[in-house]
Amino acid sequence: MTAHVRGGGAGAQEQLTLGYRLPDATPGRMAGLLETVAESPFNGRADLPQLAEETELEDDVLFHLFEALRVLGLARIVTGDIFLTPLGQSFVEADEAGRKALFAESLLRNIPLAAHIRKVLDERRDHRAPEDRFLQELQDYLTDDEAERVLETAITWGRYAEIFDYDYNSGVLMLPEEEEEDEDEDEGRDDGDTPPRDGGTQPAA
Length: 205
Fold this sequence. Notes:
Blueprint: H1 27-38, E1 45-47, H2 48-55, H3 59-71, E2 75-78, E3 81-84, H4 86-93, H5 96-110, H6 112-123, E4 128-130, H7 131-138, H8 144-161, E5 165-167, E6 172-174, H9 177-193
Helix pairs in contact: 1-4, 4-5, 5-6, 5-8, 7-8
């Protein structure tokens, strides 16, 4: 394996910016690599060249996977080895719903673009925003093509984590449907739709 990866991990990560170039790695491949490292013969820590031979993945693919796991705090790279963090081990041991919840927590904590998208959607009354709104911001940091790639990656990660959704036909990001319904119910209660408690009186017409 010839690709070089940075060391460090969740406790030693640099502060990322909105324009950070997200690694081109899918949640499914990240999960698969974590499972491989967790299982025998590696048992939580793997020599990088040996792992490359075991997975038969190309250097470029592995580089992006390593970087994604690192920035999300799921794994660390130290002296030529990759090993699972406690969060990464918890991810491997969790069921699918648990994995999504852990991924969402890490995504919002560590990836500014994902947290920014979620914040914008939370603050908008209809909880929707066009992708162009975020592309324009990314283009302050990246080329047009790279901005599109980074936003596509953020959308893939965010949809897996169920922190937001995306309509591929309209190019609009939105909160997941269930959360939108919860928000609407909360707004209804704020507008006085909550029935009075026992002994209370209906507001005057």
